UniProtKB/TrEMBL annotation:
<feature type="binding site">
    <location>
        <position position="87"/>
    </location>
    <ligand>
        <name>substrate</name>
    </ligand>
</feature>
<keyword id="KW-0808">Transferase</keyword>
<feature type="domain" description="Cytidyltransferase-like">
    <location>
        <begin position="5"/>
        <end position="131"/>
    </location>
</feature>
<keyword id="KW-0173">Coenzyme A biosynthesis</keyword>
<feature type="binding site">
    <location>
        <position position="17"/>
    </location>
    <ligand>
        <name>ATP</name>
    </ligand>
</feature>
<feature type="binding site">
    <location>
        <position position="73"/>
    </location>
    <ligand>
        <name>substrate</name>
    </ligand>
</feature>
<dbReference type="GO" id="GO:0004595">
    <property type="term" value="F:pantetheine-phosphate adenylyltransferase activity"/>
</dbReference>
<feature type="site" description="Transition state stabilizer">
    <location>
        <position position="17"/>
    </location>
</feature>
<comment type="pathway">
    <text>Cofactor biosynthesis; coenzyme A biosynthesis; CoA from (R)-pantothenate: step 4/5.</text>
</comment>
<dbReference type="GO" id="GO:0005524">
    <property type="term" value="F:ATP binding"/>
</dbReference>
<keyword id="KW-0548">Nucleotidyltransferase</keyword>
<dbReference type="InterPro" id="IPR014729">
    <property type="entry name" value="Rossmann-like_a/b/a_fold"/>
</dbReference>
<feature type="binding site">
    <location>
        <position position="41"/>
    </location>
    <ligand>
        <name>substrate</name>
    </ligand>
</feature>
<dbReference type="InterPro" id="IPR004821">
    <property type="entry name" value="Cyt_trans-like"/>
</dbReference>
<feature type="binding site">
    <location>
        <position position="9"/>
    </location>
    <ligand>
        <name>substrate</name>
    </ligand>
</feature>
<feature type="binding site">
    <location>
        <begin position="9"/>
        <end position="10"/>
    </location>
    <ligand>
        <name>ATP</name>
    </ligand>
</feature>
<dbReference type="GO" id="GO:0005737">
    <property type="term" value="C:cytoplasm"/>
</dbReference>
């Protein structure tokens, strides 16, 4: 059983994330989307809200499941019996940091990292940019699933 972990904060999930998750689901027997619990960073959505949105938008992939994790990513991979990490790369600027993490993770626990180029349609996307645009009333319909757009607009109205 070939399992892969797709880690992130997903605050919230974007179409760029979903594109990578969908493509990964066709490469592996199982894909575990790992939502990082980061105590030192207060997100817009709670971890539970992010998990709920991810489960809704990945519901059509029967080999994708969503879990949260804290601490070392390689410990989460071990616990999930996953030998591969999947990272979406948007631009060369992503590569420096991701290469450093990949080298650390293989050294720590022999966990390999598979870099997948994002679909050019989404290469400019990030959760932060989407939140900023939505905060100022911009239309983000092309960048996130409808359920995420609706949740984001409602949350920013609070
Ligand atoms: C492009 C990209 C960035 N990340 C991290 C996102 C985050 O940390 O919220 C991803 C996670 C899954 C699939 C693609 C991506």
């Amino acid at each position: 059983m070939r399992r892969a972990v797709c880690p992130g904060s997903f605050d919230p999930v974007t179409n760029g994330h979903l594109d990578i998750i969908g493509r990964a689901s066709r490469l592996f027997d199982e894909v575990i989307v790992g939502v990082l619990v980061n105590q030192s960073k207060q997100g817009l959505f709670t971890v539970e809200e992010r998990i709920d949105m991810l489960r809704e938008v990945t519901g059509s992939y029967e080999n994708v499941r969503v879990e949260s994790f804290r601490g070392l990513l390689v410990d989460f991979c071990r616990a999930q019996h996953a030998s591969v990490l999947i990272k979406g790369l948007r631009a060369v600027s992503d590569f420096d940091y991701e290469l450093q993490m990949a080298q650390m993770n293989i050294g720590l626990a022999g966990v390999e990292t598979l870099f997948m180029p994002t679909n050019p349609l989404y290469s400019f996307l990030s959760s932060s940019l989407v939140k900023d645009v939505a905060k100022w009333g911009g239309d983000i319909s092309a960048h996130v699933p409808d359920v995420v757009r609706d949740e984001l607009v409602a949350r920013l109205r609070r």
